[in-house]
Amino acid sequence: MTRTISTSARLTLRLAILATLLIGPLAALGVAKAEHPAVGKQGAGFVLFVSLQRASMS
């Protein structure tokens, strides 16, 4: 029983490492090539964000 669990855990770990090695560089490239930051500092959403922050400070 424990041998089966150990074998499957080892196999799962190997697959996770392989997936990380294959997908990791692609994800890093996608993040590096992203043009826009997660929260833009322009437009109506930013104006609303700033006005709500100012209202909470007073």
Keywords:
79% helix; single chain; 58 residues
Task: Describe it.
It is built from two helices and no strands. By secondary structure, it is an all-alpha fold. The model has no long low-confidence stretch (mean pLDDT 86).
Secondary-structure class: mainly alpha
Helical residue percent band: over 70%
How many helical stretches? Answer: 2
Distance from first to last alpha carbon: 64 Å
SSE run:
HH
Content of β-strand: under 5%
Largest sheet: none
- Overall pLDDT: 86
* Uncertain residue segments: none
> What's the Cα radius of gyration?
23 Å
Given the C-alpha coordinates, what overall shape results?
A: elongated
Number of strands: 0
